[in-house]
Design goal:
6-stranded parallel β-sheet, binds nicotinamide-adenine-dinucleotide, 30% strand, 9 helices, alpha/beta
């Protein structure tokens, strides 16, 4: 019992209960507190028959030596203050996406964690799905060949938020997936974004991001709160194979197409076939890899506990949160400048 890591979850709204449930199901963790400004909401989440304590005081929770780690599921604008307080109290921190509302604030949190030698991890949930983990191996292991493009669509009838636009609400998922699968020698260079607010609600509800990558490949993200149909697909195209992930198709979430388009040097072709044969299509099999059915949040919590125990950065560490913030900030600046391409600044 005592070698378990005591954890407090802060935030009992829509997402916090998922963290509570998965922390309770993680053998290396011991749920100590659920903290929320709204005591009744936290009590309702914990129920009557639990040893987990409910608190409205973050200070009390942070002062308790039984707590070694804090998971933050409060609105984005509160992440920095809560994370800095937890780190100052010597607690490891798991924080919901996005890490902060600005890159500069995110950098402060990353620096504080690194100075204190504590784990700072982002809940980039999708990075822990079996599909993205497989995609990561395919791309980084070179199975797809040279990376040519990434294309991600995340659209449905979504809750129009008052404090964030659709890019800050939904695109962290796609951008964190891109960040997880990109090979180490490929990075985002610039972002161009266009968006619209057809409802006149003061927030961009439909947006398209184009991301220029350092190897010349292109990334695209379409996020939309106004689509009556729900689509969750990510396509990663390579020179040899293309992977298509459809998160809403449980019988075939991932499909890998052994197909490619090849070009030929015209000087090697006879004059009569030059125009027709500069490009040829190679059509091979499609394979749907068998993926385990595992809850991503469970794997994410297990990774948080393992990073603490092993004293190592988590797969989605604070730096990955900063890289996502850098792309979100570039997208925001581009939106305000009519879609011009804005460099991604990742220096903390
Ligand atoms: N990983 C995912 O897939 C995913 C999905 C949904 C939401 N989220 C993220 O989770 C976070 C929370 O989103 P939500 O939809 O649950 O919000 P929410 O508004 O439903 O809940 C937030 C809760 O935090 C509490 N709170 C606010 N400030 C607090 C403070 N200072 N101290 C203690 N409690 C405080 C509120 O009372 C509320 O109960 C956001 O960062 C969001 O982006 C992540």
């Amino acid at each position: 019992m005592n070698d378990k890591i005591g954890i407090a979850v802060v935030g009992a709204g829509y997402w916090g209960p998922n963290l509570v449930r998965n922390a309770q199901a993680t053998p290396a963790l011991r749920m100590e507190y659920l903290c929320d400004l709204n005591e009744a909401r936290a009590r309702q989440v914990i129920g009557d028959y639990s040893t987990v304590r409910v608190s409205t005081s973050l200070d009390d929770v942070l002062a308790d030596p039984a707590v070694q780690a804090v998971a933050i599921a409060t609105p984005a604008s509160t992440h920095v203050d809560i994370a800095l307080a937890a780190l100052a109290a010597g607690k490891h921190v798991l924080v919901e996406k996005p890490l902060a509302s600005t890159f500069a604030d995110g950098a402060k949190v990353v620096q504080a964690a690194e100075d204190a030698g504590l784990v700072l991890m982002l809940d980039h949930t999708y990075c822990y799905t079996p599909a993205v983990q497989h995609l990561r191996e395919l791309v980084r292991g070179g199975d797809l060949g040279e990376l040519q493009y990434l294309d991600s669509v995340r659209i449905n009838l979504g809750l129009v938020q008052s404090d964030v636009d659709v890019i800050w609400d939904l695109a962290p998922h796609d951008l964190s997936i891109f960040d997880a699968v990109l090979p180490d020698d490929v990075s985002p260079v610039a972002v161009a974004a266009r968006g619209s607010d057809p409802l006149g609600c003061g927030q961009v509800c439909v947006a398209h991001l184009t991301i220029e990558l350092s190897n010349g490949a292109i990334g695209h993200v379409h996020v939309n709160w106004l689509s009556p149909t729900k689509v969750r697909t990510t396509i990663v195209g390579g020179s040899r194979r293309t992977a298509v992930w459809d998160d809403l198709n449980p019988t075939q979430r991932l499909a890998v197409y052994d197909r490619s388009v090849e070009t030929h040097d015209p000087s090697t072709l006879g004059i009569d076939v030059r125009n027709q044969t500069r490009v040829s299509y190679r059509i091979g099999d499609m394979v749907a890899p068998a993926l385990p059915e595992k809850e991503a949040l469970r794997s994410m919590m297990t990774e948080f506990a393992a990073a603490i125990t092993e004293g190592r950065p988590a797969l989605t560490d604070g730096r990955s949160g900063l890289r996502v913030l850098a792309m979100l900030e570039a997208a925001g600046e581009s939106l305000r400048s009519n879609g011009v391409s804005v460099p991604v600044q990742v220096q903390a």
